[in-house]
Design brief:
The structure is a single chain. By secondary structure, the chain is α/β, with parallel strands linked by helices. It has a single domain, classed as Rossmann fold. Helix content is 30%, strand content 24%. The protein has eight helices and eleven strands. A seven-stranded mixed beta sheet has the order 3-2-1-4-5-11-10, sandwiched between helices. It has a two-stranded antiparallel sheet with strand order 6-7. Strand 1, helix 3 and strand 2 form a beta-alpha-beta unit. Helix 1 runs parallel beside helix 4. The longest helix has 22 residues. It is globular and about 45 Å long. The relative contact order is 0.15. S-adenosylmethionine binds next to helix 1 and helix 3.
């Protein structure tokens, strides 16, 4: 387990500048760098019933915050306190830059989601986007998310959809096994020393793991990737299958 975690942490330190450049806007031309919150109402698959009311005044933590887009976006929605946790120092460097760009209040802390450097019962809201599929010990990460949330606190967990991950979109064939939870090693760039290690749990396994950690799953969403969400497949040269298979799965779970 520790070997996979260390491999992923090294990879993120190596990949961070390039990964964050995908997010960057042309700020010289007046564009703002994106900072979407998982609680934005107009986000694909946005969280009903009333995410804005839940965010204003809440204490919020983002787990595996990367470049801090979710943390900064949620601070801008009115959260009272915001903490982002990530194990990559390089990713956190970008997160602090984004925070300073927007001038919001958010604290970024280096730590592992399976061993959070945070007190018990400290938050009303938690979220994690595209991070828990890299965590070898999912049960421990979910137990930590539950520990830092207050009773009734909401956890929004979003992951790449395991069916999409098993698919080759160009050939419309399964290149992986939906039922194989990994580890699956991916070479992001031949120039990097480290690989990305992924664990593609099934939707049922993810839902059951949340329940086992003490969460009540009260909403689940599967949605297509943001760039295709509002587009017409007929006007696009992207593979049709991107409109037919969800890109991500998102759970809204309440800590009990
Ligand atoms: C694909 S990025 C997503 C970042 C951000 N949530 C977003 O949506 O852009 C995954 C992030 O998870 C972090 N991560 C992966 N495993 C982690 C762990 N065990 N503890 C803390 N952070 C982790 C990585 O460093 C990376 O920043």
């Amino acid at each position: 387990m520790a070997r996979y975690r260390d491999e992923n942490r090294r990879l993120w330190d190596e990949w961070s500048d390039t990964f964050q450049s995908y997010w960057n806007a042309n700020t010289a031309d007046g564009e703002l760098p994106p900072a979407p919150s998982p609680f934005d109402t107009d986000r694909a698959g946005g969280m009903a019933p009333d995410p804005l009311e839940a965010v204003a005044g809440a204490d919020y933590v983002e787990l595996g915050c990367g470049g801090g887009q979710g943390s900064v976006g949620t601070a801008r929605l009115g959260a009272d306190s915001v903490v982002g946790v990530d194990f990559s120092g390089e990713q956190l460097r970008h997160a602090r830059q984004l925070r300073d760009f927007y001038g919001v209040d958010a604290r970024f802390v280096q730590g592992d989601v399976t061993d959070l450097p945070l007190p018990d019962d400290a938050f009303d809201l938690a979220s994690s986007e595209a991070a828990f599929q890299m965590v070898p010990d999912l049960d421990r990460a979910l137990a930590e998310a539950h520990r830092v949330l207050r009773d009734g606190g909401v956890f929004v967990l979003s992951l790449p959809h395991p069916l999409y991950e098993a698919l080759d979109a160009e050939t419309r064939t399964l290149e992986g096994n939906y039922l194989d939870a990994g580890p699956r090693e991916v070479t992001v760039d031949d120039g990097y020393e480290s690989t990305l290690v992924l664990f593609d749990r099934t939707v049922a396994d993810l839902s059951n793991a949340l329940r086992n950690a003490g969460f009540e799953v009260n909403r689940m969403l599967e949605h297509v990737t943001d760039p295709v969400a509002d587009a017409d497949p007929a006007d696009s040269d992207r593979p049709d299958v991107l409109w037919e298979v969800p890109r991500s799965v998102r759970f809204r779970a309440v800590a009990r």
